[in-house]
């Protein structure tokens, strides 16, 4: 097991990582939220601020997923790809096909 699956996962993982990094770069960082000006006029500025506020959970979710993708890539390098981080069991091909960045088996997900 392992090697071939890890080899096949490398390209989709790298693509996913680049996509996530690009999405995160486009989003404003959460710490910038304090500087949002609601302005005097109700209009463009306000809806922009609201958009940014609602983007915070999405931003956090992307960061979590990016961490998972990076962890999966580290597992490929360490030749432990496809093994659960918690118990070492085989994560399973079906699960890895659905989520190439999975680093835990279904029991420890
Ligand atoms: Zn496990």
Written description of the protein model:
59% of the residues lie in helices and 0% in strands. The protein is mainly alpha-helical. It has a single domain (3-30, 44-108), classed as Up-down Bundle (Four Helix Bundle (Hemerythrin (Met), subunit A)), CATH 1.20.120.910. Helix 1 packs antiparallel against helix 2 (44-77). The chain is elongated, with a radius of gyration of 19 Å. Zinc ion is lined by residues 84, 86-87, 89, 104-105, 107-108.
Bound ligands:
zinc ion
How much strand?
under 5%
Report the span from N to C terminus.
21 Å
Helix content: 55-70%
CATH class: Mainly Alpha
Mean of the pLDDT scores?
85
Q: Characterize the largest beta sheet: strand count, sense, and whether it forms a barrel.
A: none
Structural class: mainly alpha
Regions with pLDDT < 50 over 5+ consecutive residues? Answer: none
CATH superfamily: DksA, coiled-coil domain
Which helices and strands, and how do they pair?
Elements: H1 3-26, H2 44-77, H3 93-98
Bound molecules: zinc ion.
Structure in a nutshell:
With 109 residues, the chain is mostly helical. The protein is 59% helix and 0% strand.
């Amino acid at each position: 097991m392992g090697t071939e699956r890890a080899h096949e996962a490398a390209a989709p993982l790298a693509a996913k990582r680049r996509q996530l990094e690009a999405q995160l770069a486009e989003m404003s960082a959460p710490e910038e939220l304090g500087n949002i000006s609601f302005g005097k006029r109700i209009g463009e500025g306000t809806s922009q601020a609201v958009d940014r506020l609602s983007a915070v959970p999405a931003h956090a979710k992307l960061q979590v997923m990016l961490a998972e993708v990076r962890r999966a890539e580290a597992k490929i390098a360490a030749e432990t790809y496809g093994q659960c981080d918690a118990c070492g069991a085989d994560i399973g091909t079906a699960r890895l096909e659905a989520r190439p960045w999975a680093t835990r088996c279904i029991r420890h997900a």
